[in-house]
Design goal:
The protein has 13 helices and 5 strands. It binds adenosine-5'-triphosphate (ATP) and magnesium ion (MG).
Length: about 325
């Protein structure tokens, strides 16, 4: 079975439609064919300031959402990143192999650091992609289900793996990005030229917010001054984004939706999509609450996941330490 790894940050009270359609939906399906490792990446979360109690709470809420979406801890390894210290240890080794200029070319760092005042931008935000490379390489990963925004980080991960392998001998599997064709980049509803993002909560449809609120956000999505419901990213970014979401949640093709809405208005499309979203999130939220009602069981699932992840990760790290010449402890 191929090995799959991916992670998500516990940086908000809720995952959003972009997370779900760009990545998490693939996580769920890939369980059927792969040996999957899925991780709530709290080490990544602290690259921007987090309140300690909120972070703890959001870590559990994140795990509960993953379970509610269908991640099955009997088939997949679900765990919290900080429970497996090998991530940070491998990250250090990889940092020492990364060029300063190479890290500086990462566009997500440029975007995220530009949003904050210079003195608040931590070095961790800069080295984030290297920790991400460690997350992936630690498990000898073949495929990484992520959204389009992670393509560049995956390229860096491959480069670091190849660099290590050629310098110290074959050690890491070479991972490929598994990026969905149609839903790789869900756009913000208020700014359909920008990615929907946990850290920019303008036009974000949160899976955990009140369904009424989601429907309202969809009704007030930014569109254009024409009337025609047609997929055209260049000229009709807002409508195109709504069509992508609608199609992904219902399984109806975009062509089919265009035909169905011929002669109808944007208001009709938005109202119907609002209902589709409400029908999706309502049972989901009930399930999440179920998992959160039994925190002891939730923590147990995460503990077992971390135990298994550590076994696999520690084996890779031992090889790495040996290859680079660290004296084995006796
Ligand atoms: P942040 O803004 O804090 O980085 P985020 O919304 O990007 O948060 P992450 O935890 O960084 O969330 O990403 C989790 C997964 O969701 C990644 O695989 C990422 O590629 C994917 N993803 C995030 N936003 C989108 C989006 N708008 N469309 C498709 N996939 C997305
Ligand atoms: Mg992100």
């Amino acid at each position: 079975k191929p090995r799959v790894f991916s992670g998500i940050q516990p940086t908000a009270d809720s995952f959003h439609l972009g997370n779900y359609l760009g990545a998490l939906r693939e996580w769920v399906t890939m369980q059927d064919t792969a040996d999957a490792f899925y991780c709530v990446v709290d080490l990544h979360a602290i690259t921007v300031a987090q309140d300690p109690d909120e972070l703890r709470r959001r870590t559990r809420v994140s795990a509960a959402q993953l379970l509610a979406l269908g991640i099955d801890p009997e088939r997949s390894t679900l765990f919290v990143q900080s429970h497996v210290p090998e991530h940070a240890q491998l990250s250090w080794v990889l940092e020492c192999l990364t060029g300063f200029g190479e890290a500086g070319r990462m566009t997500q760092f440029k975007d995220k650091s530009a949003r904050q005042e210079a003195e608040h931008v931590g070095v961790g935000l800069f080295t984030y992609p290297i920790l991400q490379a460690a997350d992936i390489l630690l498990y000898q990963t073949d495929a990484v289900p992520v959204g389009e925004d992670q393509r560049q980080h995956l390229e860096l991960t491959r480069n670091l793996a190849q660099r290590f392998n050629s310098r110290f001998g074959p050690t890491f599997a070479l991972p490929t990005a598994h990026i969905p064709k149609d839903t790789a980049k869900i756009q913000d509803l208020q700014d359909p030229t920008a990615k929907m993002s946990k850290s920019v909560p303008a036009g974000v449809v949160e899976l955990m917010e009140s369904p009424k609120r989601s429907a309202k956000k969809i009704r007030s999505a930014v569109t254009d001054l024409e009337k025609e419901i047609r997929y055209d990213v260049e000229n009709k970014a807002g409508i195109s984004n709504l069509l992508v979401i609608y199609s992904a949640l219902t399984g109806r093709s975009i062509a089919e939706l265009e035909a169905a809405y011929e002669g109808k208005g944007y208001g009709d499309l938005k109202k119907d999509l609002g209902e589709v979203v409400v029908d999706f999130v309502t049972p989901f939220q009930e399930q999440v609450q179920g998992y959160l009602d039994d925190v002891a069981e939730l923590d147990k699932v995460l503990r077992k996941g971390a135990e298994h992840a550590r076994e696999v990760g520690a084996a890779t790290l031992r090889t790495v330490f040996d290859r680079i010449g660290f004296l084995a402890p006796t």
